[in-house]
Structures are given as structure tokens and as C-alpha cells.
Amino acid sequence: MKKIKLLLVMMLLVGCQSPSLPLETKKEEEKVSFLAVGDNIMHKQLIDKAKQGETYEFLPYYTHMQSYIKEADVSFINQETILGGRNFKYSGYPLFNTPDEMAGTLHELGFDIVNGSTNHAFDMNEKAVDHSIQLFKRYKDMKYIGLYQSKEEQKKVPVIEKNGIRIALLSYNQYVNYDQKPSEYRYNNFDKTKMKEDVERAKKVSDVIVVSCHWGKEYDTKPNDFQKKFAQYLTDLGVDVIIGTHTHTLQSVEWLDGKDGHKTLVAYSLGNFISGMLEEETQLGGMLSFDFKKDNGKVNIENITLTPLVNHFYAENQRNIIGTRYGFTVYRLKDYTDELAKQHGVYGYQNSKISIKTMKEKVNQRISPSIHIDM
Length: 375
Hints:
Shape: globular
Strand content: 25-35%
Structural class: alpha/beta
Distance between the termini: 78 Å
Radius of gyration: 25 Å
Helix content: 25-40%
């Protein structure tokens, strides 16, 4: 007892303090910013313009967009055209084969998720699909979704974990342009039984589920019955976000109500990101951004914004678009000008009148009032 008292006295004399519990540290906010854009389509004129000797330089096409892509914690793009390799001739419409350099470009831009399951996925046959899968596997921090090399691979649910939130990724495709039917495991079609099984597996390994849907009818500006039916089905299954592609046009973005009070954010089509298409409607696209925020184990979707985009290109001879030399890029509509609009390659083509006013009217007509529009 005397020894204990002596020790306490000595501690007081030298100014020592008894050990105390560490101060409670503030828990880091569990939030993930997510960004999605639509169809990345490499038509022949874009491939030719990007050719630099024996390689291809695509990065300049995205000069005005790279900072926004990199800022997001997780970014999604639909790679419409297959990267089939040099064993097949690089080509544009109708049978596409995009140079391998595009994979590195998407990685450098900051995309984390690349959907490869499109109607053009099998343009160069199944060997080209294998090449594309292997090519993207070189980039360990990117997920190439929707195409598979085996039944085992098809059953796996890709997951991205960021800031304490696990995001499961599913992909479904309505169309395949291919003379013969691909092997069953190559991609996922809109089979309700399989979709239900996939969602159940995804729920076991994630906090939220994002679904890529390649669907609808090209050039339609409104979702058709097929899109609406499966959007509701996925909502009832409990997925959190649906990102639609394929129509090459901007379609509605809205909330859907599902079973048990569940809500799903649906972008029926984000249109084209970049392409060489000539139709006026295909020049207007969208960039969807939002935050996943976890609170007491539940993840909510906040700060939803649709930023309209303009697929822009110049033509030397605007009255004779086919065969002219192009310069391609993508702008946010809010950064676009009337002067640029009058220089657009399709201005005057088939009586087209690209204008900021018209594009803004289309956006306001198609996007739900509950979604913030940044334009």
C-alpha cells in the first residue's frame, strides 16, 4: 500500500497523468459521387481522324469532359462499339471494330465502369468479344461489364467498393446484330427469371445495385413499352439505379415506385456521348450525376443532376457532310454557344437547325421536374 501511495505522489510531482481513453474520432462520411454518360460510338470518320501513324489518339475528343469524369468517385460509360483487335480490320458502321487504344483512353479519362454489352458487341464474332474482355482486364481498376467468357464468369456479380459503399453492377441487352446466336453465357438478355436471380445475388454482396440496360428503339425520344415494363420489373426487384442506352437520343430521367415503398432512379436513355451520327436528335445527350450516401446502414441517392451534352463536330463542307473531314468533341450544353451551333456539321443538313434554344426545350420536355437540370 505504501508503494502505491509513493508512486501516486511521484506522478503528481513530475506532472504525469494517468492514461486516458482516446478521444472519439469523427467517422468519415460514407458517400460516393457517381457519374454516367451514354453511347461512345466510333464511326469510321472518328477512327480515321484519330489515326496517328500506327496508333490512334482519341483523348482530344473528350477535352471538355475529362475534368468532370475524373472528379466523380465512380464513372460509367457505354462502349457501344466492340474492341475486337487488329486481327480484324478497324471499321465503322454497320459492322464496328474500334481500335484497342480506346480502352486506354477510357481509363485515362477516369471511367471506372464500361458496359460492353450492346447490339454491336458481336459485330466481329465471339473471338473479338474475348479480345475485348482480355484487353479491359489489363486495367485492374476498371470493370468491363455485360460480356463473358464462361458460365462461371457470367454468374459473378461485379462490385466496386468506394468510401465504405459497395456498388453491384448488372447488365442486360435487348439486341444482338449477329448472323448466328451467340453462346448462352456470352451476355444477359431480358430474361425475368435470370434477372431475379442476378438481383438476389447482387443484394448479398452490395449496398446498392446499378443496372445497365441496352434497350428501346433507335431514334425514339420516349421510352417504349418494353423499356417501361422492364424498368418497373427491376424497380420491383429492388435495384437502385437503371442506366439506359441504345436509342442514341436523350430520353426521360425519373423516379419509379416499386414494391414495399422502394424507389429506383431510371434514366431510360442518356443518348450519345460521342459519335459520327448525322441525325439532329442524336447530337443531344446527357450526363447523369448523383451521390450515394450511407446513413445507419441504409444508402440514399442524393444531389441528382442531369447535365445536357452536345455531340459536336465540324465539317469543311457543310452542304456535303458525307466524306468530309471532321473535328469531333463533346460540350456541356451550358458551355455551348450559338456560334458553335451554326458551325455544327449537321447544321443545314436535311433542314436541320441545331440551336441552344431547341435543345433546352427538348431537355425540359423529357426530364422529370423532380430531377435538377444543369444547363
